[in-house]
Design goal:
Blueprint: H1 7-30, H2 37-44, H3 48-52, H4 58-83, H5 87-104, H6 106-114, H7 116-120, H8 127-144, H9 153-173, H10 179-192, H11 194-215
Helix pairs in contact: 1-2, 1-4, 1-6, 4-5, 4-8, 5-9, 5-10, 6-9, 8-9, 9-10, 10-11
Keywords: DNA-binding, Transcription, Transcription regulation
Protein name: Transcriptional regulator, TetR family
DNA-binding region: 36-55
């Protein structure tokens, strides 16, 4: 968004930011159902009338909070797909971009997963629907560019989105995980299947046995 220049615009931007930051803390600590608008107003330090100049109710506030953060996530993933030069980089770079966003802002994703039923209520008619539409568009573009085979785009979109969503949950729950290895694992699984993931350990075990025999 452009930086506000006038004093009034700056005040409006500051008020909105204060409300969203207070809402983020409330939803994370209490959960969507327990939070009241009064909680958010109290934490923001603003007057009730000021709050209602920006948001009519709790649902619109939560929706705005999610959309602001997921917009950045979506932009980063889309840019990664646009830079892709082959099918491997298309999936690997997009998964890696998503996991990097989770690692950069774990509190937000903890908030999102804690309030998952509410987030999922936006699935078709709001931001998740837009994310899936963007993914489908990027897949169709990749097919046109010859990066991805001409397959069932709807099924491919659903599978790819589902994997990315659950990987984000995994990284949020297991922050010690290596995100590059995780993105590589799911990419190989997606493109090559389970046999490709089991071949390497077999070769390693065979090499260990050979080395062990040579040592003896």
């Amino acid at each position: 968004m452009p930086t506000p220049t006038g004093k009034r615009e700056r005040n409006k931007a500051a008020n909105r930011t204060a409300i969203l930051e207070a809402a983020r803390r409330c939803f994370l600590e209490l959960g969507y159902e327990a939070v009241t608008i009064r909680d958010v107003i109290r934490l923001s330090g603003l007057a009730a009338g000021t709050f209602y100049n920006y948001f009519p109710d709790k649902a619109s506030l939560f929706r705005a909070l999610v959309e602001v953060r997921l917009s950045k996530l979506q932009d980063r993933i889309h840019a990664a797909r646009e830079r892709a030069t082959d099918i491997d980089s298309f999936f690997y770079q997009s998964y890696l971009a998503a996991l990097q966003e989770v690692r950069a802002d774990p509190d937000f994703f903890e908030l999102m997963f804690r309030n998952e039923p509410v987030v999922r209520s936006f699935y078709n008619d709001n931001f998740f629907g837009l994310i899936m539409a963007s993914l489908k568009h990027d897949l169709q573009d990749a097919i046109t560019r010859g990066l991805v085979p001409d397959l069932d785009v709807d099924a491919l979109t659903a599978i790819s989105f589902g994997a990315g969503y659950e990987l984000a949950r995994l990284i949020a729950q297991q922050p010690q995980r290596d995100i590059e290895q995780t993105a590589r694992f799911v990419t190989r699984l997606f493109l090559e299947g389970l046999p490709a993931l089991t071949e390497k350990p077999k070769l390693i075990r065979l090499g260990s046995r050979l080395l062990g025999g040579a040592a003896r």
